[in-house]
Design goal:
Shape: rod-shaped
Number of helices: 1
Radius of gyration: 47 Å
Strand content: under 5%
Structural class: mainly alpha
Length: about 110
C-alpha cells in the first residue's frame, strides 16, 4: 500500500511538474508576443508622431498661403480702387472738356 501511494504521489508530482512547465512555456510565448506587440506599438507611435509633425508643418504652410492670399486680395482691392479713381478722373476730364470752349476757335460768326 505504501508503494502504491508513493507511485501515485510521484505520478501526481510529475503531472504537476509537466503542467508547470507547460504553463511556463505558454507564459514565455505570451511574453514574446506581448514584447512584439509593444515594439509594434512603439513603432506605430513614432510613425504617428512623424505624421503629426508633417501635418503640423502642412497646416503652417497652408496658413502662410492663406496670409499670402489675404495680402493679394488687399492689393487687388487697391488696384480696383485705383482703376475706379482713374475712370472717374477720365470721366470728369471728358465732361469738363465739353463744358469749356476750345481756346483759339472762333464762335462761328463772322464779323
Amino acid at each position: 500500500m505504501y508503494g502504491n501511494q508513493m507511485q501515485s504521489m510521484s505520478a501526481q508530482l510529475n503531472q504537476c511538474r509537466q503542467i508547470a512547465q507547460q504553463m511556463m512555456q505558454q507564459t514565455q510565448q505570451s511574453s514574446q508576443r506581448y514584447q512584439q506587440m509593444m515594439q509594434q506599438e512603439l513603432q506605430n507611435a513614432q510613425t504617428l508622431e512623424q505624421l503629426a509633425q508633417r501635418e503640423h508643418q502642412a497646416a503652417q504652410m497652408i496658413g502662410q498661403v492663406l496670409q499670402g492670399h489675404q495680402t493679394v486680395m488687399e492689393q487687388m482691392r487697391q488696384v480696383e480702387q485705383a482703376c475706379n479713381q482713374m475712370e472717374q478722373m477720365m470721366h470728369m476730364q471728358v465732361v469738363s472738356g465739353f463744358q469749356q470752349p476750345y481756346a483759339g476757335q472762333n464762335s462761328g460768326f463772322r464779323q
